[in-house]
UniProtKB/TrEMBL annotation:
The keyword Transmembrane applies. This is Uncharacterized protein. Residues 4-84, 109-214 form the DUF8054 domain. Keywords: Membrane, Transmembrane, Transmembrane helix. The keyword Membrane applies. Pfam families: DUF8054_M, DUF8054_N. The chain crosses the membrane at residues 42-61. It comes from the Archaea. InterPro entries: DUF8054_M, DUF8054_N.
Length: 264
């Protein structure tokens, strides 16, 4: 293992998540104190030094910290400002290939009219044929290289004349209109865009429909891991202001990417 394997730039530097860092340093401190109290002073000092160094170069040492630290910190009576909300990457991120915000009800009506979704009791779900095409397309795109995915996004979606790819060492992104869109999101939306086909004639509605299809995901379209619920508080690209409740989100624990934000 070399030094570059140990470092994780996606969790340090500008990308450092302060809730994760604080919680980890606290846990390292507690563990060191416990050893110290038990008269294992050499061990305590070594643990404290190693733990702090690991947090410095890796962002966090306790596995799955991004899944619990933001919630933990959100529950503490501490102002959000302490945790530096603007610690995201220097290139802005967006959760979707499309920046157009359309009314959710309109989009669902259009999808239903196109035969892409159907109601079952209180639930809505994709119709069987569309669902099968969507999952087939996601499997195909998951196997594509990042460059090929970016190229296909640019060729498929109208008015996306340039799409670039960006790999920060841990996560893969497609750069669309100068913003980063996470690879699993691109896979899901591009596949849904294909699956909706020409049944949805209006391009903006088709893109918004593809975006809405992410709510039907239960596993990561890129790596297959089951999605987990989390909260987007000042962590890993998340952002909230003190006036609004933290967003409930679905994340892939392996890609460490947000796949869906539950509407308030
Ligand atoms: Zn994943």
């Amino acid at each position: 293992m070399n030094w570059e394997d140990i470092r994780r730039p996606s969790h340090t530097g500008e990308n450092r998540c302060w809730p994760c860092t604080t919680v980890n340093l606290g846990l390292v401190g507690v563990a060191a104190l416990w050893l110290y109290r038990r008269d294992r002073r050499v061990g305590a000092v070594a643990l404290a030094a190693l733990g702090a160094a690991a947090v410095a170069v890796r962002g966090y040492v306790v596995p799955y910290t991004p899944q619990f630290a933001p919630r933990l910190v959100a529950a503490l009576p501490i102002p959000d400002e302490l945790f530096g909300k603007d610690t995201g990457p220097s290139i802005p991120e967006r959760e979707s290939l499309t920046a157009t915000e359309l009314d959710g009800t309109t989009v669902l009506d259009e999808l239903a009219a196109a035969g892409a979704i159907e109601a079952e009791g209180d639930l809505i779900r994709p119709t069987a044929a569309v669902d099968e095409t969507w999952h087939g397309e996601m499997d195909r795109l998951a196997d594509a290289s990042l460059d090929a995915l970016a190229r296909e996004a640019a060729e498929t979606i109208p008015a996306r004349d340039s799409a670039d790819s960006y790999d920060d060492g841990d996560s893969e992104w497609v750069v669309v209109d100068g913003v980063l869109v996470a690879r699993p999101v691109v896979v899901a939306e591009l596949a849904a865009y294909h699956a909706l086909g020409d049944a949805v004639a209006d391009q903006e509605v088709r893109l918004a429909g593809a975006r809405a299809f992410r709510m039907f995901l239960d596993s990561c379209p890129d790596c297959g891991s089951a999605l987990v619920e989390s909260s987007a508080v000042s962590c890993c690209g998340g952002y909230t202001d003190p006036q609004t409740a933290p967003e409930e989100i679905l994340v892939c624990p392996d890609c460490e990417q947000r796949l869906f934000t539950v509407p308030n």
